[in-house]
Amino acid sequence: MFSNDEPTIYNLLTVEETKEKKPKAYTSKFRQNVKQEYTSGRGGAKTMGPAKVTAPQPTDYLKKHEKEPQLPKKEEFKYPDDNRKKPSVPKNNDTPLMGLKTTKNFISTNAVENITAVPKLPAKKFADTRNGDVQNLIPSGYEPVFVHKKDFGEVPMYLTKRKEEVARAQEEYDQYISEQIRRTALRQLTYDERQAIIDGLKANWEDIQDQYQGLSVVTDTAPKKNRKERMEAQMKQLERDIELFEKHKVIYIGN
Amino acid sequence: MAGEDDNIDTKDLELERIIGFNGKVQSGLMVHPDREHIVYPLGCNIIIEDITKEAKQCILSGHTNDVTCIDISNDGRYIVSGQETFMGFKAIITLWDYATKKAIQKWELHKVKVQAVAFSKSGKYVISLGGQDDGSVVVWDMVTKEPICGSPAQVESAGITTCLATSKVSDEVFVTGGDNTLRVWTIDKENRKIRPSNTNLGGFKRSITCIEMVDDQVEDMPYFFCGTTTGDILCINKSTNILQFEFPGKDKFCLGVTAISFVKMTDKGFNMLIGTGSGIVGNYNISVCFEKGNKVKTVFKHRSDAKPWKHCESAITSIAKRGAGHQFFVGTDHSQVYKFQFADYSADLIKTCHSCPVNDIIFPFGVAQLILTCQEGEIRVWDLTTGRELRRFVLANKVCNALAISRDGKIVVSGWNDGKIRILGFKSKDLSLELKHVVMDAHNKGVTAVALTTRGDQVISGGGDGMVRMWEIITFMDHTGKKEMRADLRHSMKEHKNCVSEIVIASSDKECASASGDGTTIIWDLTKGSRKTVVFANTLFKSVCYGEDEHQIITCGTDHKIGYWETYDGSMIRELEGAKAGAINFMDITSDQKAFATGGEEKLIKLWRYREGEVTHVGKGHSANISRIRIAPDNRSLISVSEDGAILQWRFPAV
């Protein structure tokens, strides 16, 4: 429709001027070096007389070993596992510790131990031949083991039976009660019935709405006004009814 | 119902900027003695603005109607302001503490209007002058904050007293002036009396508009200067009450003298700044010499290094010196503020504001930085980041009612009260607004609403006669190869019986909704040009918005209610109580349609959650009826305008 070169309001927006940043001109990293070297080495041969250094002071005389190199202090050598090492084996000229004697009365303690000891149970055995050959009973499998029982770990029969009985009794009781309630209670509207009523109400509302939309804008005569007001009242009533039905999922009907 | 006003969890909207200044108040623009703040009235508020930093503003609100006069005490501790009110009621004078920015005292004694207020020299008294229906002068004691005495301001044969000035020498002396009256008063506190003495003007009959006291400058010349509607200035001796001289003799100032400000004594005499009704600000030297026989010879000359400065087409209402006068501010009737440097006499426009009700605001599509506003015969483009006006389009003696801008930003469509639609474009040279095409006789009783489709080639307009019309803009080349524009009528849809207040177009461009004052909002099919659905309510609809992916519309009107309606069949979804008192004039919805803002005669801006229908934020700050609100496209700010011409920018909160 318009050509693109036409000015727009967006041209009024203040555009921040971004200056293009030029990359810095290249300077060699040796530039300083070169500069220095260029000037420093000059006139090396221009010396006149000895180098100008401060004369040594009499208080600052040369001392013994001053010119020797300063060595670092000696440190004792240590193995890295020194603190983990076992004590060394006794030497052949070491004398063992002599003359140690216990105070324990072995006789009496032994006697007391034996007297108080619980007698040992005989091992469970069985003889399976007439010659009296005996075998160990435990590993043979003749001895019953509790955990190997067939119904080990299961709820005993009497308990389940009792539970069932209780449940049945409760169910019968509930049935009886609900039967009693049903006999005395109100009738509940089923989902389909409720839906049918709502649909019907909506259909009615739409009918009236269609007519209402067809009304003229100007309501100048009394019949027109009455008609409009009547329709508005009807629609309002229907809206209220629809809302009532939609609001409640469960509806009972009294007899 | 949700959305009660007294809901505790509503927060206040944060005000970012006010663009507004009521230039009609005589000497309403003042500089505070601390030299860092200017004080000016805006509707029923007073605004204190920092001039050193980036315009930090502070609002003094407490008046119930438009502020008519302001004065600041010489020590800067107090501000006093008067207002007008409705016939038969008493107008309030409010005393403000400058440091805390709170009202200390409210005085109700004058009827209908307070014409002028002034502090005495050391702030011992406040003197107030009532308006036309009151006609009395009252002196208030600042220590007890009680009135000392009052008296009729003029003799019965004289006209209305309009202005007031206090002496710079003593606390007890002040001067009032008006239509054929000029009196010097002395306060007698012990006897609780004020005593007037009429000045002798000889044969002069003048209506005085402003008084400047210069009685402290020269010992033997305790003069004061009075500007008149005739266009001359009278100089009167305070002690003798005799007219000394008047100037300029023949070449009187056009449209009267409206503001006088004394700057300094020089060797050339009194140096004064004079503002006139024709918009001239001049810096004049008045030298006085006495000849024998009590003859006075005066020489009246403008300073030699500059010419009088001329502002276009509106009166100068206030001249406010900063400090001694090295810099001064000039306020005009047209709500513009200029800053002058005294040394080189150069003027800077620092503030432009709307001087009458703003009828419409719009944002360009997707740009939150610019807004377009319209008042009477002006369309202005503002930059919101700086608060400055960028461009202006003026058409005298017409009123622009509505604006719309195309998405490409190339054309602005405006509806005017002369029944024409004016299509504006931008000049390529300086981007100023220029008229491209006028649709003559678009509507009978003025165009009240316009809207543009997303492509920008179709205009929907609504008129005061209730017609909704669709126009197609066609551009073509004429025989010289110049680009021309034409608007062809596509549909004219006649259903509304009253003026169309707003039109919004759905994003599909296939339907639009129009709100009307006849109590209907109609959704139109734009392809067929017929009505789709109609919404009835017992109200004058003011505004309409699309919401919920354009399946719903929300409306507001004079019945204080916000209605949600289905677009499909026009049935009501819900109704909210939008305001406690007063009509809701306008509403705007965010681009994500999660929240909307309303504003109206309550002078409050309310921000609502769309789905919940709850008020989350309330904006207080307007001093007149809010006429329009727009939420910025970036959802960061909210702009509202009111009938006093103020533009307020609010920070849009996270809803």
From TrEMBL, chain A:
<feature type="region of interest" description="Disordered">
    <location>
        <begin position="20"/>
        <end position="100"/>
    </location>
</feature>
<feature type="compositionally biased region" description="Basic and acidic residues">
    <location>
        <begin position="61"/>
        <end position="85"/>
    </location>
</feature>
<dbReference type="InterPro" id="IPR052102">
    <property type="entry name" value="Enkurin_domain-protein"/>
</dbReference>
<dbReference type="Pfam" id="PF13864">
    <property type="entry name" value="Enkurin"/>
</dbReference>
<feature type="domain" description="Enkurin">
    <location>
        <begin position="161"/>
        <end position="253"/>
    </location>
</feature>
<keyword id="KW-0206">Cytoskeleton</keyword>
<keyword id="KW-0966">Cell projection</keyword>
<dbReference type="InterPro" id="IPR027012">
    <property type="entry name" value="Enkurin_dom"/>
</dbReference>
<protein>
    <submittedName>
        <fullName>Enkurin</fullName>
    </submittedName>
</protein>
<keyword id="KW-0963">Cytoplasm</keyword>
<feature type="compositionally biased region" description="Polar residues">
    <location>
        <begin position="29"/>
        <end position="39"/>
    </location>
</feature>
TrEMBL record, chain B:
<dbReference type="InterPro" id="IPR019775">
    <property type="entry name" value="WD40_repeat_CS"/>
</dbReference>
<feature type="repeat" description="WD">
    <location>
        <begin position="493"/>
        <end position="534"/>
    </location>
</feature>
<dbReference type="InterPro" id="IPR001680">
    <property type="entry name" value="WD40_rpt"/>
</dbReference>
<feature type="repeat" description="WD">
    <location>
        <begin position="440"/>
        <end position="473"/>
    </location>
</feature>
<comment type="similarity">
    <text>Belongs to the CFAP52 family.</text>
</comment>
<dbReference type="Pfam" id="PF00400">
    <property type="entry name" value="WD40"/>
</dbReference>
<keyword id="KW-0966">Cell projection</keyword>
<feature type="repeat" description="WD">
    <location>
        <begin position="619"/>
        <end position="655"/>
    </location>
</feature>
<dbReference type="InterPro" id="IPR050630">
    <property type="entry name" value="WD_repeat_EMAP"/>
</dbReference>
<comment type="subunit">
    <text>Microtubule inner protein component of sperm flagellar doublet microtubules. Interacts with BRCA2. Interacts with the CCT chaperonin complex. Interacts with HSP70. Interacts with AK8. Interacts with CFAP45. Interacts with DNAI1. Interacts with IQDC.</text>
</comment>
<protein>
    <recommendedName>
        <fullName>Cilia- and flagella-associated protein 52</fullName>
    </recommendedName>
</protein>
<keyword id="KW-0853">WD repeat</keyword>
<dbReference type="InterPro" id="IPR015943">
    <property type="entry name" value="WD40/YVTN_repeat-like_dom_sf"/>
</dbReference>
<comment type="function">
    <text>Microtubule inner protein (MIP) part of the dynein-decorated doublet microtubules (DMTs) in cilia axoneme. Important for proper ciliary and flagellar beating. May act in cooperation with CFAP45 and axonemal dynein subunit DNAH11. May play a role in cell growth and/or survival.</text>
</comment>
<keyword id="KW-0963">Cytoplasm</keyword>
<keyword id="KW-0677">Repeat</keyword>
<keyword id="KW-0969">Cilium</keyword>
<keyword id="KW-0282">Flagellum</keyword>
<dbReference type="InterPro" id="IPR036322">
    <property type="entry name" value="WD40_repeat_dom_sf"/>
</dbReference>
